[in-house]
């Protein structure tokens, strides 16, 4: 029993998961748990349709807000719901003022299946204030490319017609003035968001 | 996804499609065979066989699909349910299922001095608490639950710590005349108090502690933090139910025995 505990201790106590180690190293070196881009390109300018069918001008609508931009799809079985649930949970715990100054933008990479209604219903499961956007695959792909993200890829449908969409798994965060851009890869924990969001919000001007 | 021998964290979406875990079956089968062999040479059976069977079934339920798979890498609350079944319920049932003849043989064995030492209530309570705390540390859970071997190790540690924990309360060997029912009740009560620390840690944490469950593909609508809060409550309430049931049984047995021997103090007439 003692031998087992010793073996388990070596296995469990000394080894931190890689993503935790990476986040902690980044936090020590840069003060951020996410990956801060040096000299980021200007905040992108694009217009897509929101879940109520209205045009949404990204640059204008997010100016002055701490903004989180994520490309995913509502049938996603793993990464998308985890990111959305994490951001929703963290947002709920922020002071009201910071909640109001934060926008989460979800852009579908699967416009065929993700109707505005479906996006609205899906996002409401996490936080009804999250904003869902849709546009043609060509337009969404070009936006992703302009942000340095790979365009989405549709896998072969299974016998039921269900298909997986390969897409970038990171969340892009922008400070209210757009001067700071931080990348949060999949594996970012709620504690990481809680650590960085106040810094990001305070980075205006 | 390939065949797994033991339940552990998977980076695949949860599915209610049944999956086999042959390592679990072999483990439970090996325990069952051990019980049969021990019982064969003991002569007695009856109710004890029923307890042993209940213990084995509890263990199998906790380790196999779906509880084992959900607790292995999807839901912290189900992981806690596993802990309750493997570390608290199954060991008590298994010890209650050991035939009298086996206890007699153990009482006459040369290992008795070692057994007396390692099953001393202070030792067993300390070991159980160390295992309880250590196997719920985030770094330990995140690392060990990621592999089948690590997950197996946690389950075995729980079972062994549980057997040790219940030993002074249930096992008649070694004889501890001074550790009577009141002491046993105090011992179990202390355990209910000691599990408050992990309970508070899980229930009142501001963010999810375990990456393995926080970043797992979601199951249903429960958020990672709600899941963790349910886990904490389950530890407190579920653990409390098991331990307080044992305390109640001990108290009534003690009361009835005192009553039968006439030692129970009688209230003076008003």
Report on this model:
The complex is a heterodimer of chains A (205) and B (270). Chain A is of the alpha+beta class and 205 residues long. Helix content of chain A is 40%, strand content 19%. Chain A is built from eight helices and ten strands. Chain A has helices at 2-13, 18-30, 58-62, 79-93, 96-100, 116-124, 137-146, 190-202; strands spanning 35-36, 47-50, 55-57, 66-72, 102-108, 131-134, 153-154, 165-166, 171-174, 181-184. An eight-stranded mixed sheet of chain A has the order 1-10-9-4-5-6-2-3. Chain A has a two-stranded antiparallel sheet with strand order 7-8. In chain A, a hairpin with a 6-residue loop joins β9 (171-174) and β10. The radius of gyration of chain A is 19 Å and the shape is globular. In chain A, 37% of the residues are buried. The longest helix of chain B has 38 residues, at 224-261. With 270 residues, chain B is an all-alpha fold. Helices cover 69% and strands 0% of the residues of chain B. Classes of the chains: A alpha+beta (205), B mainly alpha (270).
- Please identify the structural class of chain A as seen in this structure: alpha+beta
Q: DSSP strand (E) fraction of chain A?
A: 15-25%
Q: What is the molecular shape of chain A?
A: globular
Strand count, sense and closure of the main sheet of chain A? 8 strands, mixed
Mean pLDDT of chain B: 92
Return Rg of chain A in Å. 19 Å
Give the low-pLDDT segments of chain A: 1-16
Q: What ranges of chain B have pLDDT less than 50 throughout 5 or more consecutive residues?
A: none
> What shape does the CA trace of chain B take?
globular
Strand order of the largest sheet of chain A: 1-10-9-4-5-6-2-3
Structural Rg of chain B = 20 Å
- Helical segment tally of chain A? 8
Structural class of chain B: mainly alpha
Number of strands of chain B: 0
Protein chain pair with the most extensive contact, residues per chain: A-B, 31 and 34 residues
H-E string of chain B: HHHHHHHHHHHHH
Residues in helices of chain B, as a percent range: 55-70%
Number of helices of chain B: 13
Strand content of chain B is under 5%
Average predicted local confidence, pLDDT of chain A = 89
